[in-house]
Structure formats: structure tokens, C-alpha cells
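Lecture 7 notes: from sequence to structure.

We start with a single chain of 256 residues. Read the sequence below before looking at the structure.
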Amino acid sequence: MIAFKPILRAIRLMAGLACLASAICSCRYIQPCFFVHSLIVVLPESPFAWDGIAPDRWRVEWKDAESEKREAFLPAGGRTRIEVPRGEFQAILAYPESMGAVFKPAGFLYPEDLGPSGPWPWAEDVAVFSYESGYGSEVARHLEVLGMRPSAYTLSSLGEAAISGGADPWDLPPWKAARALAGGTFRKSLFVRALHEFALPDGETWAPESPFKSIDRSGAAHRVFLAEGLSLFHSERSSLLVDMREDGARFMAWER
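Now the structure, written as C-alpha cells:
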């Protein structure tokens, strides 16, 4: 009887492995565990620049496990679970909205922004969105339009590179950044610093479309430094477009 113990143990091991293989290969397990990645969306706090007109909801856009475009609306501070094709690059965007105004998005570059994962493939991971990756995600979408692979670039570093140089990344339109990357001509100096002071119109509390612009509200007149080009601002009921040029600013305001 003793001589048969190794054989019995081998039979039990083979039976156990067969059961495990059967479970893994069944559609119920292999589909969600190995082809689909479940993510918990965590949105960022509103930046100081948006005080007075904080977003009341967010529009999240992504591609689901079947690579179909999806969107969901979340209240401020809300969370949701989404499923994406496991390991396939995609730029996930979350647009803040407030009283008809849409601000520049936060984003999540999957899987570049993903933190360390748990040991089990069926565990849910947390997708922590950031405004820096919002810019990188918009650049990624323009790279895709140009037929380029966004995963070939470290896009999450673009926003950080601009901010570290004292610039607002959104002052370089994402389509321009994408073209420079695709053509091999991108350089940090394309991000220009805001050197022109502009006094915002009285009677409204204005918030910049970009989360990276800073408004000085310490005086009677609220002031902001702008780079040359177009900058958009919102209040509770109006919007303001400023065209900053070398010889001064031109602007127009309208009610939404």
C-alpha cells in the first residue's frame, strides 16, 4: 500500500490541475480575468483656479471591452467602474461641466498611469485621473488621428514638463503637440510661458477653462497672466474668450 502513495498523490495533483484548467478555459473566467481589465474611476479635486464655479458633473469617455465608445456622467466626487481591453493602450478622458460650461479634461493614460497591481488578474484596479494626463490624453487622440501609436511616447510627462517650466500645457494646442511628436520636432520650449497680464471684466467671478491657469483675486480687479493665443474663461452664466497678442488683448463675452 505504501508503494502506491506517490501514484495516488500524482493522480490527485493531475485531477486538481485538470479542474483548474477547466475553470480557466471556461468563458466565464477567461473573458473577464484575462481579456478585460476592471477599473475604478477616481476623479481629481477641483483646482483652486475653479473656485466659485466648481464642476457639478463629469463626462467620462472610454472604450469598453469590445472597443466600443462609451460615456458616463458622474457627480462631483463620484466614482464608477469601467471595463477596458486588458493591456491595450487607450486615453480615457473626464470632462468637467458646470452650468453649460465645459472645462479642460482630466485624464488617465491606460496602462501607463496604472499603479502596481494585485496578484490576481480578476482584481479591480484604481484609475486615478489627473489634469496632467488630461492633456496627454488629448495629445494621444490626435496622434491616433495621424496614424501614430500613442503608446510609443511618454505622454504623461508632457503636462509635467510644461508646468515645471512655468507654462500652461493647454497653451500649446494638443494637435500641435501631436504633430511635433509625430514629426520628431517636439521640444520643451514649445510650451510658452504666460507673460502678458490681463484684467478680467468686473461683475463676474471668472474661472479659466484650463486647470493650470492662476487668477489673482486679491485686488479689486481680478488679474491673470496669459500667453499669446486664445484663452477661455467661464462664470456662472457667461463665457469670455481672450485673444492675447503681442500688441494687446482682444476679447468677447457672451451669455450661455
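Residues 15-30 have pLDDT under 50 and may be disordered. Keep this in mind for problem set 3.
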